[in-house]
Amino acid sequence: MSSATFLARVVSGVVLINLFIFILAGLSLRQSYRQFQQGAEITTRNLAQALENDLSGTIRAKDVALFAMVDEYQRQRAASGVDGPSLNAYIERLRSHLPQFDALRIADDKGAMVYGTGIPPGANISVADRSHFTRLRADPDAGLVFSPPQMSRVNQKWIIALARRINLPNAAFGSEQSGGAFGGIAIATIELEQFSRTFAALNVGPHGIVTLRDDQLGIVVRHPEPEKIGSVVGQRSAPPPLREMVQAGRKSGTYRALSTVDGVERTFSFRRVADYPFIIIVGLASDDYLAEWRSVAVRLATLVVLFALATLAAAFLIYRNWKRQANSVEALAQQEAKFRTVADFTYDWEYWQGPNREILYMTPSCERVTGYSAAEFAADPGLLLRIIHPDDRPRMDRHLHEIATCEDGALVDFRIVRRDGAIRSITHHCRAVSDRNGEPMGRRVSNRDVTEHKHMEDALRDSEERWKFALEGSDEGVWDWNIQSGEALYSRRWKEMLGYAEEEIANKADEWVNRVHPEDMPSVMANIQDHIAGKTATAVAEFRMQSKDGSWKWILGRGMVAERDAEGKPLRLVGTNADISARKQAEAKLQEKTAALLRSNADLEQFAYSISHDMRQPLRMVTGHLQLLERGLKDMLDQDDKENLAFALDGARRMDAMIVSLLDYSRIGRKTSSKQWMTSRDSFDEALAFLAPAIKESGATISESGEWPRIFASRDELTRLFQNLIGNAVKYHAADQAPRIEVTSTITPQLWRVSVRDHGIGIATQQIDRLFQFFSRLQSRARFDGTGMGLALCRKIAEHHGGRIWVESEGDGQGSTFIFELPLVPADVAAGDSKTEGEQHES
Ligand code: ADP
């Protein structure tokens, strides 16, 4: 149920209960109101009734006194005349039976007060003008006549007078009805105060009133008086219900009205006084008789309000409790969902077995590992053990036996046979679990599929073994240096290399540092720094290390960073040490030999140069003298002598040419222009310029293609190279064919390659190897002139520039292609000693 629905229900429940209580309280109040109202009506009626009885009694008593007075008066008149004192005494006796303040008097036929109580002696008081006097005088049958309320002329008090006619004695005795001469009136007064007193004795409550009205509804007495007595006397205003009922001739009645005098609401009952012209009205103020009801109503209302508040509070508490409960249920559900998520999505196969090994929960991942679903395991308790590989069952049984009494976690490895028959390796971990009170709740089991891990482990072990074998076989020592901790591990061979036993070298980097030759240390460290900084793929250094016996050994150390932290800082350096002392010795010997060779080579070159140079001098003498001889003996010599002389001269000249070419050869790299950066094309053009006469003469066509690099070379030599190759291509062509030559220059990433192709006489394949040797010629001098030194020179030039030269030919008559390749950046430039080759001049 949603919070809003529950709240709506609680609220409507509270509203309904309160509505019911309100209605109940309302009904009960209404009921009691009615009772109070009825009570008031009954009270007023009863009081009015009582007053009526009282009033009519009072009047009747007065009337009796009046009769007695009239009788006495008439008797005395008829007998011996009125004896004043005796009459007065008689009257006084009568009066004594009446209430204290009432007076009994007799007025004569003129209206003068003559006898009776309370008349001051000598007072001349007349009632001749009073309505009751005039009326009785005029009407012998008037009977008992009431005066309206009036101020007594005897004692100035408000009174009403009751009067009866006195007939003169000639009239029939004792019968005033029979008429007779008017002889005066007998009067009984009732002080209005007396009514007031009677009324005051009634309990009509603080605001109740009692009113006496005459039959014309004029007020006679009202109690309480609003001001002083008589202030409302004679008022004729009356509430409409009273007026209506009186006019309708009703004797009594009850009504509610607002007082015409003080405006207070009251419940009235009126009653006509039987036989007398008076109406008694008793009114109880609503405020008085409802006061109790009101306090009850207020109490009840308070109770109802309190009840409403209490129900509201209860509803609030109920709602709050419900809300709390709902929240805790919700929190519980969330908690449950959380744990379920954790439990249901484990990668490993997890479960919880109860104390009797029954499965209480198993993660769905069991299906991934075993091929069986959690429901299958739950339904079939034997399945767990059945899928264990038969070979591993004894181990598992042992484990189960062991854990029966064991609280702690226990580990065991076994294999299972999956549903599909595949075998998987499992690492099983279980531990006893108990609830909060320490009651055992079975065991919590975690099964991890470690098949891949096992395979990897096996592979790793195999590979480790292979490496170990390879390293031990390679005779190299292995080291592993933890840069952060300064710890280092050295293999047995590493130690052995320096003559140490396994335990003689500690696992510290210092063991290595302290044994490196101090002279070699800076370069080794620089090397390692370069590698760590990422400048080199591996750190490789050759250095000397001191053996246990104090001798020095040359070591080739190779290492690389095997592990870096997240910032790329190296953590471990791993590598090998190889003993290269033997190689170093061999190298040193080789160096010595090379130096000796270089020296002897230089000597030889110098020797050859000197010889050739010096040989030209005698040769020129031979040639010169032979020419002189030829000129001097010109006419004396026969044809044979002349031919012999010419041979001798030719031989001398050829000899000179050969010596010149030898001199040229020996100058290469010694007395030619020094290497410098130049445009290769310039040399090519220069060579063509030198060759222009021969080209022109032979009618050769020379085409050129490709890119020409800038190159670091000796300009003389490069020109000479082109000159020789193109010169040969021009020279060695078939007699009937003009030479056709293609020169192609190509640049590869490292090399500059030039090929000079001709379509000339070609070269027999088996001769190719000889071509570049000294004075080697394939053609007879008769056909092609030459010294056979050109290509040797070319090879020396190519080699002087770090390059090589070779020839390709399909054979005789197939043309040939001479190719040379020079490095674009020669080794001496790369090494930075390009300026070391100084210019040398022929001495
Ligand atoms: P020379 O040209 O002075 O004889 P070289 O050393 O220049 O000496 O050449 C050696 C030999 O190689 C030449 O005698 C010739 O037989 C052969 N030879 C050189 N260039 C060519 C070529 N372009 N075609 C055919 N044979 C050649």
UniProtKB/TrEMBL annotation:
It comes from Sulfurimicrobium lacus. Residues 610-826 form the Histidine kinase domain. This is histidine kinase. It is found in: Cell inner membrane. It is a multi-pass membrane protein. Its main location: membrane. Residues 410-462, 539-592 form the PAC domain. Residues 359-407, 463-535 form the PAS domain. It is an enzyme of class 2 (transferase). It catalyses: ATP + protein L-histidine = ADP + protein N-phospho-L-histidine. Pfam families: dCache_1_like, HATPase_c, HisKA, PAS_3. Coiled coil: none annotated. SMART domains: HATPase_c, HisKA, PAC, PAS. The keyword Metal-binding does not apply. Keywords: Kinase, Membrane, Phosphoprotein, Transferase, Transmembrane, Transmembrane helix. It comes from the Bacteria. The chain crosses the membrane at residues 6-27, 297-319. InterPro entries: HATPase_C_sf, HATPase_dom, His-kinase-like_sensor, His_kinase_dom, HisK_dim/P_dom, HisK_dim/P_sf, PAC, PAS. GO terms for cellular component: plasma membrane.
